[in-house]
């Protein structure tokens, strides 16, 4: 079952949320200004080694060119992205 929390609630209860994810395998959706912006889930629920679009290459041979363009576009956008430092 997914539970919805505002960003303010999530920040205030972060340790509790992490414990509930670890021990109860719960999932949480975080909202900001009423919009769903993130999901916090148990790490075991995803394959962190998945390669996304790159892994799809070859599965649809007539789309390889388009997949290459999408991957290139993503990497270019990441290079232009401005970063902000987050103090932990």
Keywords:
YefM-like fold; 4 helices; 19% strand; 43% helix; extended; 2 domains; 88 residues; alpha+beta
Description:
By secondary structure, the chain is an alpha+beta fold. It folds into 2 domains: 2-45, YefM-like fold; 47-81, no CATH class. It is built from 4 helices and 3 strands, in the order E-H-H-E-E-H-H. The chain has helices at 7-12, 14-24, 53-56, 64-80, and strands spanning 2-6, 27-32, 35-40. Strands 1-2-3 form a 3-stranded mixed beta sheet. The chain is extended and about 45 Å long.
Would you kindly provide a brief summary of this structure?
The protein has helices at 7-12, 14-24, 53-56, 64-80, and strands at 2-6, 27-32, 35-40. The chain is 43% helix and 19% strand.
Radius of gyration, whole Å? 18 Å
The CATH topology of the largest domain corresponds to: YefM-like fold
Q: How many individual helices?
A: 4
- Going by CATH, what is the homologous superfamily of the largest domain? YefM-like domain
Reading the helices and strands in chain order gives EHHEEHH
- Tell me roughly what share of residues is in helical segments: 40-55%
Structural class by helix and strand composition: alpha+beta
Shape: extended
Total strands: the figure is 3
